[in-house]
């Protein structure tokens, strides 16, 4: 396929947020190029790969090719070993991101988007201060492609935003530093995602065990960047694995950071929008970003296509993306973020107590929102905030 | 600041927390611009593999 000299929209990054953005922009009439730095979408996998069925189902037909494991149960373990099993959160999956991301990108291409891999975006091309294209390196050669809108879907680094002058910095207390191994030859609970909490286990974060098959799992840890001064995440994860899975073999190792901010003040400027991890659109408590990125991508792609129809690419036009995102999820983000700050500060005895309370709730009523309700109920200010959000959400 | 390239996994976490845009990722390689760097240490703390250290 030939890459054209000019597109309406260039999306930088072929992860879930980028591909969904490209798909909705192309589907609604824009010409779109997706630019991916790596050889293919989805690599290297820097993800625990867990998602809910409800979250991904609007964006792709479920295909066993990219499902590693079905999930029915979430198990949360307190520092003292007491655990809560939740059966009522809906169906979930552990994905094969490498295949999933490619499949999502194929959906975008089916709707008319072009894709170039091995193309490393280097900078924005500006004329009289206005963004008019992207400079990139492809097979050792420096090239440019012109466009009216650049979409930064370039993940946690968020370089595109910086090039445009947007402050994409994540503060230390909103950054989890993380390591994940894929372990083989271990015993795991069927269809269960496990979460382990405790200040000795994962200060300001948690250890996760997400099954990938009968005897392999993604076992990872994220700890608060703010609290990780003495030891890094690898120290804690190695300790956890030595205790629980002493004979496991590590088949995959990945290092990375998980932003747990509520979002960014600025995600739109003239001729540019940011989406997904690049816009810090993640769940501040879980650190999950796949579904959030896809929802933002749908909104962002539609706004881009609308701008192309109008041939207006200024901040004012593109701000519809910000507005619609805030309406859909953005407003809740701040409350979830406040809950995260509360959650992160729980001492081990407080966490033990929370799990005890949860275990006294009938299993059929035990869900993640209920857990958070229990966690915040001794904090009247936060309860008010949560209640306010849900009330305003309901009456809209 | 100095980066041990043998350890660096090019994950981008340091880039996200740098307050002065002193860290650049280019062609799968991370570089710190010591002219811009203000020695805040954020990158040292969040690097999950401890590949960044203060230059003595």
CATH class of chain B: Alpha Beta
Could you say what the CATH topology of chain B is called?
Alpha-Beta Plaits
Helical coverage of chain B, percent range: 10-25%
Give unreliable regions of chain B as ranges: none
SSE run of chain A: EHEEHEEEEHEEEEHEEEEHEEEHHHHH
Gap from first CA to last CA of chain B: 9 Å
Cα shape of chain B: globular
What structural class do helix, strand and pairing data of chain B support? Answer: alpha+beta
CATH class of the largest domain in chain A: Alpha Beta
As a percent range, the share of helical residues of chain A equals 25-40%
Number of continuous helical runs of chain A: 10
Domain count of chain A, please report it: 3
Q: How many DSSP H or I helices of chain B? A: 2
Helix and strand content put the structural class of chain A at: alpha/beta
Strand percentage of chain A = 25-35%
**Rg of chain B, Å, rounded:** 10 Å
Overall CATH architecture of chain B:
2-Layer Sandwich
The biggest beta sheet of chain A, please? 8 strands, mixed
Strand content of chain B: 15-25%
Secondary-structure blueprint:
The complex is a heterodimer of chains A (396) and B (56).
Chain A: E1 6-12, H1 16-27, E2 32-35, E3 50-52, H2 53-56, E4 67-71, E5 73-77, E6 83-86, E7 92-95, H3 97-110, E8 114-116, E9 119-127, E10 130-138, E11 141-152, H4 159-163, E12 175-184, E13 192-196, E14 206-211, E15 216-224, H5 233-244, E16 249-259, E17 268-269, E18 272-274, H6 290-310, H7 315-344, H8 348-359, H9 368-376, H10 380-394
Parallel strand pairs in A: 1-2, 1-11, 2-8, 5-13, 11-18
Antiparallel strand pairs in A: 3-7, 4-7, 5-6, 9-10, 10-11, 12-15, 12-16, 13-14, 14-15, 17-18
Helix pairs in contact in A: 1-3, 1-6, 6-7, 7-10
Chain B: E1 2-3, H1 13-17, E2 23-26, E3 29-32, H2 42-46, E4 52-53
Antiparallel strand pairs in B: 1-4, 2-3
């Amino acid at each position: 396929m030939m890459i054209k000299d000019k597109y309406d929209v260039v999306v930088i990054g072929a992860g879930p947020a980028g591909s969904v953005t490209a798909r909705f922009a192309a589907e609604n009439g824009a010409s779109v190029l997706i630019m991916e730095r790596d050889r293919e979408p989805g690599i290297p996998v820097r993800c625990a790969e867990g998602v809910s069925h409800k979250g991904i189902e609007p964006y792709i037909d479920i295909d066993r090719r990219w499902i590693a494991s079905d999930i029915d149960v979430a198990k949360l373990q307190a520092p003292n070993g007491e655990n809560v099993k939740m059966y009522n959160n809906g169906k979930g999956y552990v994905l094969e991101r490498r295949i999933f991301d490619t499949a999502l990108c194929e959906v975008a291409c089916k709707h008319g988007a072009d894709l170039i891999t091995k193309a490393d975006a280097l900078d924005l091309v500006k004329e009289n201060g206005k963004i008019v294209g992207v400079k990139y390196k492809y097979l050792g050669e420096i090239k440019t492609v012109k466009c009216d809108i650049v979409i930064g879907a370039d993940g946690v680094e968020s370089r595109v935003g910086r090039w445009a002058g947007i402050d994409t910095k994540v503060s230390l207390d909103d950054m989890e530093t993380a390591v994940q191994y894929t372990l083989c030859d271990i015993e795991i609970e069927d269809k269960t995602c496990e979460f382990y909490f405790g200040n000795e286990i994962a200060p300001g974060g948690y250890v996760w065990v997400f099954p990938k098959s009968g005897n392999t799992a993604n076992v990872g840890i994220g700890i608060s960047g703010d609290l990780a001064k003495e030891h890094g995440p690898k120290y804690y994860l190695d300790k956890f694995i030595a205790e629980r899975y002493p004979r496991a073999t590590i088949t995959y190792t990945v290092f990375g950071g998980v932003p747990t901010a509520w979002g960014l003040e600025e995600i739109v400027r003239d001729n540019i929008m940011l989406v997904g991890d690049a816009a810090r659109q993640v769940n501040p408590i879980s650190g999950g970003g796949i579904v959030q990125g896809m929802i933002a991508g749908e909104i962002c792609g539609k706004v881009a296509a609308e701008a192309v129809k109008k041939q207006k690419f200024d901040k004012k036009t593109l701000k519809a993306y910000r507005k619609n995102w805030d309406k859909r999820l953005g407003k809740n983000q701040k409350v979830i973020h406040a809950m995260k700050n509360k959650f992160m500060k729980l001492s081990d005895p407080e966490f033990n107590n929370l799990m005890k309370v949860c275990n006294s709730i009938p299993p059929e009523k035990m869900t993640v929102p209920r857990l958070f309700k229990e966690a915040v109920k001794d904090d009247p200010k936060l309860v008010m905030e949560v209640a306010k959000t849900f009330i305003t959400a309901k009456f809209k | 600041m100095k980066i041990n390239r043998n350890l660096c996994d090019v994950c981008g976490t340091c880039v996200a927390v740098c307050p002065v845009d002193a860290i650049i990722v280019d062609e799968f390689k991370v570089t710190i611009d010591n002219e811009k760097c203000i020695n805040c240490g954020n990158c040292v703390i969040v690097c999950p593999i401890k590949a960044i250290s203060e230059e003595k």
